[in-house]
Design brief:
By secondary structure, the protein is an all-alpha fold. It is 72% helix and 0% strand. The N and C termini lie far apart (96 Å).
């Protein structure tokens, strides 16, 4: 018996982690992940080939981000996610909140700007087009918190509490579209907050933290709403296959618990990254000031001492 025209059997055995991690690739995401790794690897190889350094940590983060997408979409977690709300919620949380953070820590835009060749004067190559996009009005809008925070929230409530979710789950293209949307929304939301890659909207560190915490509580509220419901709320999961041996309401409660608990994980990861960036920014600024002081004989300190001396002279 097929589920929603996906061509996958509904008669899956009861879920275990081992069964969920079995290889079961979705062609779209398998190709996308392989292409992403290949293009990133080409960029790193191009930099290394001309003697430029590229941090190994960034390559590791990007690779982990791609592998996290592949883990969710190219294993039987994706099959079980079609019939178990709890497994689908793991997919959603990873794809929309963990994968984007890891991918952004890989600084793919910075790598592209450094690896792509500069076009001849008067021409517009891929690098110039990317720069135009980064400085466009469109990017200023889609990376502004007035857009990203409502979009981040609407991707939860607008999908699951309306018929849109059931409509998208009814076809393979719809399911792929939904997962791509979750990934894209996560990237757009975390991009200005992470501040690793260049972008049009780049607030200070305190504002980034406020943006981060403005969106996270809504995941907790969403999870609590699922856990407190007295009946299944999502039509696609209200009649799970008997072979799974699960209760729809209990599975929904588990999904709510996952959404609630998972909202804390990216908050901690991003907060650590922001504090790390802030510390190194302060360190670089201190080094610049020390160098400036060495060049000008610390005129700023001399001016400050003169100011204090003038205040003391006035008081006498």
């Amino acid at each position: 018996m097929d589920h929603s025209g996906h061509g996958m059997t509904m008669d899956l055995p009861p879920f275990t982690l081992g069964r969920g991690l079995e290889f079961s690739p979705d062609p779209f995401f398998l190709v996308g992940c392989l292409v992403g790794l290949a293009v990133y690897g080409w960029g790193v190889a191009r930099l290394r080939g001309r003697g430029d350094a590229w941090p190994v940590s960034r390559t590791v983060f990007f690779t982990l981000g791609v592998l996290s997408v592949a883990l969710m979409m190219c294993t039987k977690l994706n099959d079980y996610g079609m019939v178990m709300f709890s497994v689908h919620m793991v997919q959603h949380m990873v794809i929309s909140m963990l994968s984007p953070i890891l991918l952004l820590l890989g600084a793919p835009v910075t790598l592209a700007l450094r690896a792509l060749p500069v076009a001849p004067r008067g021409d517009k190559g891929p690098r110039e087009l990317l720069l135009m996009l980064l400085h466009s009005r469109y990017m200023r809008i889609v990376t502004h918190p007035a857009f990203t925070i409502p979009l981040f929230i609407a991707s939860l409530y607008g999908f699951y509490f309306t018929p849109l979710f059931d409509t998208l789950m009814g076809s393979k293209i719809g399911h792929i579209t939904m997962m791509v949307h979750f990934l894209a929304v996560g990237l757009v939301f975390f991009w200005p907050i992470m501040g690793v890659d260049p972008g049009p909207h780049r607030p200070g560190y305190v504002m980034r933290m406020l943006e981060l915490f403005a969106g996270m509580p809504f995941h907790a509220f969403f999870g609590i709403a699922l856990m407190m419901a007295s009946e299944p709320m999502i039509k696609a999961y209200e009649n799970p296959p008997a072979s799974l041996g699960i209760d729809a309401l209990a599975d929904q409660n588990a999904a709510g618990g996952i959404a609630w608990a998972f909202s804390e994980i990216p908050s901690v990861l991003v907060l650590i990254a922001l504090v790390y960036q802030w510390y190194h920014s302060e360190q670089r600024q201190a080094v610049r000031k020390d160098r400036a002081a060495d060049r000008d004989g610390d005129k700023e300190l001399e001016a400050y001492n003169a100011y204090l001396a003038s205040l003391q002279a006035r008081g006498q």
